[in-house]
Amino acid sequence: MVRKVLSGSEKLKYSLNSLRNHTALNVSIFLAVILSVIYIFLNRSILQFDSPDLFADFIDPIINIFTFLTAILIGFYNLYSNWKNSLEKRLTVFYVYYYDNLSEIIRAYEEQKKPEEKKKKEMELEFIKHHKLKEKTSYCIMICDEALLAHEGDIRNWGQQLGRQFTKGNLDFHPFFTLGSNKDIVKVTIGEAEKFTKQYLLYVFLESLPLHIINLESGLLSTENYDDSPTSKIMYFKIREIDHKKIMSFQDSKQFIERMDFITKTKNESDEL
Predict the structure, then answer these.
(1) Residue 85 and residue 76: Cα distance in Å, rounded?
(2) 198-213 residue pLDDT tens
(3) Does the structure show a pLDDT above 50 at 153?
């Protein structure tokens, strides 16, 4: 699978390619151009700057021409917007763990009365110490790469739902989240097929480590989430710091994933998890 982030000129190029499917707009532009040429040909005084009636002979026709050009530009902009909004939407979600103070987690463990929750806090503390997770530092623990997104309004809920699916249980979310620049349009090539996708980026922040990640002893990446095959691909990585404020574009996110220190697990280890 090959991906290419489109530049501004390429976005314009591919959006204009969709012009072929807009018959009414094509006919309107053609007729407007023909009428404008006829108007200029029949009113050559437009080019006579020494006319005594400057407004009627020059300024007014120029205003009309600018009005025409503005209408054309608005039409092209609407065309581009319609093309962009019709693209398949894809969402990449980073799940980030952060804690302020280790003593607060220790106190929560000591004060916990429920045996199951107390055990989970104990495992979380052991995980933090084993992986040397520092205070006031953001760590990437899960990534869902380019999941299909039905609608922009579903970003937050869909990102949280994906996290629950990966961890096979509930997640403790902070009541805030961060969106990326969310303006990248990417051409995806799968075999000989090409499609254009609008890419979105979401950061979800977790109050506590998911039990599934603690049992994995590693981070989790779900990738290759396209329908060219019936399954996605799960990979495991060494948990690492992430500065989400510097990773705001699709290309930034891909570079971060490529630099991951991936871990190979045996089939038996994967089946147990």
Answers:
(1) 14
(2) 999 999 999 999 999 9
(3) yes
Classify 207 as helix, strand or coil.
Answer: coil
Q: Where are the alpha helices (DSSP H) in 173-262?
A: 211-216, 250-258
Q: Among all chains, which residue has been given the structure tokens 């390619």?
A: 17
Distance from C-alpha of 223 to C-alpha of 170, rounded to nearest angstrom: 21
Q: Are 95 and 204 in contact (CB under 8 A)?
A: yes
Segment among 41-55, 81-95, 195-209 with least mean pLDDT: 41-55
Total residues belonging to the chain: 273
The alpha carbon of 15 is separated from its chain's Cα centroid by a whole number of angstroms, namely 19
Are the beta carbons of 120 and 212 closer than 8 angstroms? no
Burial of 185 (0-12, 13-18, 19+ CB in 10 A): buried
CA distance 231 to 225: 7
Residue 31 token pair:
């007729």
The whole-model pTM stands at: 0.79
Strand partners, 178: 203
Token pair of 112 as six digits: 């916990």
